[in-house]
Please model this.
Amino acid sequence: MSTVFKALSDPTRRRVLELLKDQPMSAGDLASNFNVSKPTMSAHFAVLREANLVSSEKVGKSVVYQLKMSVLEDALLGFAESFGWEMRMSDESTARVDRKEIVSE
Amino acid sequence: MSEQAQTFRSVIPLLFGVAVFMGAIIFTAIAKKTGQLDYDTANRVAGTILGLALMVVGNFLPKITRRLTSRLQNSVKPAKTERQVGQILVLAGLVSAALWIIAPIDLDYIKLLSSMIALSALITATAMWIRDAYHGATQSIRVVGDVQPLNPLTMMSQIILLGLAWASLIMLADFFWGDTAALWLAVAAAFVNAGVVGFFYTRRHI
Model:
C-alpha cells in the first residue's frame, strides 16, 4: 500500500493516471504530454508499475500502458488530486535519474 | 515466470478471499443452529458479509486488465465499463452492508431493501457488460483475430457476482415466501454448483 501512496504523491504521475483513464496510451504519447525528459518519464512509469497501478504491454514497436486501478485506489487518486499531496520525490529511482540529468546537462 | 503461473498467482488472493467469506457465512450458520447466535444477529452478520463481499469484488474488478488488442480502440470501452461497474458495486455493497449493521429491529424490511439494492446493482452491471460485448462483437467482425481470450480472473469474479446475486434472491424469497422457499433456492444453488463443477471437471479430463 505504501508504494501506492508514493506513486500518488507526485503530480506528474497523477496526471499520467488521469490520461490513462481515457484510453490506453503508448509511452511516447504519454511522454509528449509532459515537459519532462524521457529517462525521468520512464522512472515515473517504473514507480507506477511498481505500485501495480498500471500494466504495460508491447504492442508492435511501442510499449503501451493501461490503467490497473482498483476502485479504492481510484478514490485515493481523487483525494490526492483535491488535497494536492506533494511529497518531495523521495523515491530513489527518480532522484537518481534527476541527478544523472543534471550531470549530463 | 510463465504466463499461466502468473495468472494463477494473481488468482490466489481472490480464492483466499472467497474462502474467508464462505467460512464466515458457514460459521455464522453453525453458530445460529447451535444457538450461540440468535436469529437477528445471524441474519445481520450474514447480510453484512454479503455486502462486504460485493464491495471487495467490485473494488477488485477494474484491476483485472485485458490483453490489449492490435486496435487500441477495442480496449477502451471495456476498461471504462469495468471501472464504472466497480464503482457501482462498491457503492451498493457499502450501502447494503451499512444497512445491515445499523438496521433497526424490524429486520425484514432491511432484508428486502439491501437485497434489492445489491440485485439492482448487479443487473446494471450485467446490462453494461452485455452492451460492451455487443459493441466488441460488432467491431471484431471487421478485424478478425482481435477476439479476446477469456481471462480466468474475469470469469471467476463473474461467478462470484452470480453467487452474490443468487444470495440476494434467496433473501428476497425469504422475505416474500418465508424460510422454505429460501431453503429450496439454496438447495438449487448447491445442485447447480455441483453440476457446473462436474461439467468442467469431466471436460478437462476427456
Notes: The CA atoms of residues 46 and 93 of chain A lie 8 Å apart.
